[in-house]
UniProtKB/TrEMBL annotation:
Biased composition (Basic and acidic residues): 15-27, 107-118
Disordered: region residues: 1-132
Biased composition (Acidic residues): 1-14
Protein name: Uncharacterized protein
Basic residues: bias regions: 119-132
Length: 132
């Protein structure tokens, strides 16, 4: 048989599925939640929980496709302001890391000498480590 010819091997036999047989007999078809009507779902939930009426505290609508950027910025700014005062430590006081001392012959202060030693010791930790 040539590759461009039609293969009629299975045409004589009835191999198609029966019309009365469903695709999946184990599970019935269920409409996805996203495609269900919102009001129909609310009516069912109202019947189930008629005694329990708790007002929704969420100000956002769950069906919004995207959140309004202005509201998002306002919420983020409010949370930043709330966190700002709580647990915020001020930065430590800046240490004097000055290596420039007094002119020659005047004598050097102890902290300037310590800073020079520290700079000499940690020279290799930065780029251009062979430069002073």
């Amino acid at each position: 048989m040539y590759s461009d010819e039609y293969d009629d091997t299975y045409d004589a036999e009835e191999v198609s599925p029966r019309a009365d047989e469903r695709e999946d007999a184990r599970r019935p078809f269920v409409t996805p939640r996203a495609l269900q009507a919102r009001h129909a779902h609310q009516e069912e939930s109202e019947e189930d929980s008629a005694a329990e009426e708790v007002p929704s505290t969420s100000s956002r609508n769950r069906m919004d496709f995207c959140v309004n950027p202005e509201e998002m910025r306002a919420r983020r700014e409010a949370s930043f302001q709330a966190r700002r005062g709580k647990g915020h430590r001020p930065p430590p006081p800046s240490k004097n890391v000055d290596v420039i001392g007094k002119p020659k012959g005047q004598g050097q202060e102890k902290d300037v000498l310590a800073n020079r030693d520290r700079k000499e010791k940690h020279k290799s930790a930065r780029a251009n480590h062979n430069r002073r």
